[in-house]
Amino acid sequence: MGDQNYYEKLGVSEDATFDEIQEARNRLLQQYSGDYKHLEAVEAAYDAILMERLRMRQEGKIKVPEGIRFAERLTQVPPKENSSPVQKSPEWLQRLVDQPSLTDIILPATVFSGLSALSIFYTAASAQILQIALIVGVGTSFFFLYRKEKKFGRAVLLTGMGLVTGLIAGAIFGSLLLPQLSSLGISVEQFSTTLTFILLWLISSFLR
To answer: Is the pLDDT of residue 121 over 90?
Structure first.
């Protein structure tokens, strides 16, 4: 079938513009809606004409608008995937960090807040009272950690790390802040104990 037959199939002349060719194609597609044989013939004629126009364009015989739909563009290009996917946390961090509910945050916070208040504001807070408060705090931390995944060893390890880290950090920072703490009537031991409670709360609430 020659090019003239393709033009006749669409009902346009050989010098028809691209807009006229597209309008003729769309009109015929509507006219033969549901008649797949005719629709296929219309599409074949349309593509053949466009391929001929493309060849002529490449030879410099005609100028074709960039927006025209050529046959090689019939296949829809799949949408590009997001080039910047959501960054996920490393697996080791996901295994360590928890996403606690509000209850899992508030309950330990209430206990540790009470213990901190006892350690700081109880004027007769002796070493023995601070030790008892620490024991209660350690037990609280262990309880909430163990409750999450029932891993005894992990709960003991994390609680122990929190206790040691809190006491050491409290002693260091307490010594550096000794003048300020003394003016507030707070001893280094009280400050260290309170810092330990804060750390134990963070561990028991936000770690697995």
So the answer is: no
